[in-house]
């Protein structure tokens, strides 16, 4: 049976934990709003870009002299998995669910005898994958110093990835990240980015389009930008998901701390009462003995 | 035929402008071109330069550092890598691009070198235009 003093100390400690988690939840809520705004602002570009890419790539898709990025290397032996996770913890199952998706894919690919390489973005995922797949790591991108994600960050990752692709280091690249559905739901995704998947053009009205300088040169510029755009929107989605996950995790933690405080307070009051009763009994039996 | 067209200027980070315009001068990679309503459908790459838009509220200029333009007969979308209004741009904003282009030009070989040098020249011209 803990003493009254111990109980008092535990209640105080849980109370300060609750204050911290409450503050973290509010910070996450503010950051979430910003992250959502950023993701929202990037959407028009992504949508239009997909439309342009669809138009240009549609006709080039079938031909043999299409750029390597569009046509692929013709093999799918070596896979590059880009696993994007957060730099900070305390965000519930956010990182674990991305890592789980990636792990399933790694096991699936290895069972088929493919070679897997991993590039990690964000240290939390790296830590989780390190023990099992540490020998597959090729590089790591650290975003912990970055306050607001810019297109330049995504472009740097894309340039690195593309130079590896051109050097023949891999055939297929897949992005792993989470899309933001709501505060309580983030959905882990696996999205192929190299070779570039051509967006569905079923809705396009298919008129003749002129290209300047020419289709090939446009594609040569369009496809690398497409990789950077895909990475950028994945980073933004991930940032929003992370804050959403943190917000609900911290909300749960705050509520649990509240429950714990209630339980401990009841226990504290009971033992205080027991002490008082005990003292009374001692006084009364002392008086009776006289 | 309508005498205005929908003009959209977007960059990966945000949407800069969206309104109707009557005439747009585009710094295309293969030379400047002016798009007016009813223009043939085309897609072009952009070089670093100034985009001039004539709309209902007068003429507005934007600096773009590259990207793509998609022209349809009643709308035009500029997908710029980085864009900002000309009035808010200072020569100092262009300097980092010139430095990057210089570095790229000194490293590149063969045909890539020509492209990199042209890029550098475009950025320098852009800086002079801004400053």
From TrEMBL, chain A:
CDD domains: F1-ATPase_gamma (cd12151). It holds the Pfam family ATP-synt. Its main location: membrane. GO terms for cellular component: plasma membrane; proton-transporting ATP synthase complex; thylakoid. InterPro entries: ATP_synth_F1_ATPase_gsu, ATP_synth_F1_gsu, ATP_synth_F1_gsu_CS. GO terms for biological process: proton motive force-driven plasma membrane ATP synthesis. The keyword Nucleus does not apply. It is a peripheral membrane protein. The keyword Transferase does not apply. SUPFAM superfamilies: ATP synthase (F1-ATPase), gamma subunit. PROSITE patterns: ATPASE_GAMMA. Keywords: ATP synthesis, Cell inner membrane, Cell membrane, CF(1), Hydrogen ion transport, Ion transport, Membrane, Transport. It is found in: Cell membrane; Membrane; Thylakoid. It comes from the Bacteria. GO terms for molecular function: ATP binding; proton-transporting ATP synthase activity, rotational mechanism. Gene3D superfamilies: 3.40.1380.10, ATP synthase, gamma subunit, helix hairpin domain. HAMAP family: ATP_synth_gamma_bact. F-type ATPases have 2 components, CF(1) - the catalytic core - and CF(0) - the membrane proton channel. CF(1) has five subunits: alpha(3), beta(3), gamma(1), delta(1), epsilon(1). CF(0) has three main subunits: a, b and c. Produces ATP from ADP in the presence of a proton gradient across the membrane. The gamma chain is believed to be important in regulating ATPase activity and the flow of protons through the CF(0) complex. Belongs to the ATPase gamma chain family. This is ATP synthase gamma chain.
TrEMBL record, chain B:
Its main location: membrane. Residues 5-83 form the ATP synthase F1 complex delta/epsilon subunit N-terminal domain. GO terms for cellular component: endomembrane system; plasma membrane; proton-transporting ATP synthase complex. The keyword Hydrolase does not apply. One of its GO terms (molecular function) is ATP binding. Keywords: ATP synthesis, Cell membrane, CF(1), Hydrogen ion transport, Ion transport, Membrane, Transport. InterPro entries: ATP_synth_F1_dsu/esu (IPR001469), ATP_synth_F1_dsu/esu_N (IPR020546), ATPsynth_dsu/esu_N (IPR036771). It is found in: Cell membrane; Endomembrane system. It is a peripheral membrane protein. NCBIfam families: ATP_synt_epsi, PRK13443.1. F-type ATPases have 2 components, CF(1) - the catalytic core - and CF(0) - the membrane proton channel. CF(1) has five subunits: alpha(3), beta(3), gamma(1), delta(1), epsilon(1). CF(0) has three main subunits: a, b and c. Produces ATP from ADP in the presence of a proton gradient across the membrane. Belongs to the ATPase epsilon chain family. This is ATP synthase epsilon chain. It comes from Rhodalgimonas zhirmunskyi.
């Amino acid at each position: 049976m803990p003493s009254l003093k111990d109980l008092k100390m535990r209640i105080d400690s849980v109370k300060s934990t609750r204050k911290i988690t409450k503050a973290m939840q509010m910070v996450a809520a503010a950051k979430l709003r910003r992250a959502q705004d950023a993701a929202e602002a990037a959407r028009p570009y992504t949508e239009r870009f997909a439309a342009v890419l669809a138009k240009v790539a549609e006709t080039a898709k079938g031909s043999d002299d299409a750029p390597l990025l569009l046509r692929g290397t013709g093999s799918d032996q070596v896979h590059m998995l880009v696993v994007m996770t957060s730099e900070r913890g305390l965000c519930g199952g956010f990182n674990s669910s991305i890592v789980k998706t990636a792990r399933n894919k790694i096991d699936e690919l290895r069972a088929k005898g493919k070679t897997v390489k991993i590039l990690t973005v964000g240290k939390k995922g790296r830590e989780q994958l390190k023990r099992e797949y540490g020998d597959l790591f090729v590089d790591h991108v650290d975003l912990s110093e970055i306050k607001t994600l810019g297109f330049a960050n995504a472009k740097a990752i894309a340039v690195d990835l593309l130079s590896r692709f051109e050097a023949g280091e891999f055939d297929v690249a897949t992005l792993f990240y989470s899309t933001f559905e709501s505060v309580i739901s983030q959905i882990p995704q696996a999205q192929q980015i190299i070779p570039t998947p051509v967006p569905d053009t079923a809705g396009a009205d298919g008129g003749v389009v002129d290209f300047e300088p020419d289709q090939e040169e446009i594609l040569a510029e369009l496809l690398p930008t497409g990789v950077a755009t895909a990475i950028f929107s994945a980073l933004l989605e991930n940032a929003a998901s992370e804050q959403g996950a943190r917000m609900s995790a911290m909300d749960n933690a705050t509520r649990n701390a509240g429950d714990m405080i209630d339980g401990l307070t009841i226990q504290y009051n009971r033992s205080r009462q027991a002490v008082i009763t005990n003292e009374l009994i001692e006084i009364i039996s002392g008086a009776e003995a006289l | 035929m309508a005498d205005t067209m929908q003009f959209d200027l977007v960059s990966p980070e945000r949407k800069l402008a969206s309104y109707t315009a009557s005439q747009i001068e585009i710094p295309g990679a293969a030379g400047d071109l002016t798009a007016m309503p009813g223009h043939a459908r085309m897609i072009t790459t952009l070089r670093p330069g100034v985009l001039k838009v004539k709309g209902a509220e007068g003429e507005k200029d934007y600096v773009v550092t590259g990207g793509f333009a998609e022209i349809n007969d009643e709308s035009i979308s500029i997908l710029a890598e980085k864009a900002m209004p000309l009035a808010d741009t200072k020569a100092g904003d262009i300097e980092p691009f010139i430095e990057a282009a210089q570095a790229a030009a000194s490293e590149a070989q063969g045909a890539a070198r020509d492209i990199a040098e042209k890029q550098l020249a475009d950025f320098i011209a852009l800086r002079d235009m801004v400053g």
